[in-house]
């Protein structure tokens, strides 16, 4: 994956650093996470945040091979 340096507001970096520490991420990964959520919310404005969050979690679980088959019966 290619990387690019960009300038960001120091307040945003400070907030990302705090959240990153709390959530065991690096500050750049926290900002990437926020960007991913923002993109998903803009692409799907009718979906609530909690649904988008659960979709991200479900995708991570699938990629980790941790999903269980659901029984509709």
UniProtKB/TrEMBL annotation:
Pfam families: ParD_like. InterPro entries: ParD-like (IPR021831). This is ParD-like antitoxin of type II toxin-antitoxin system.
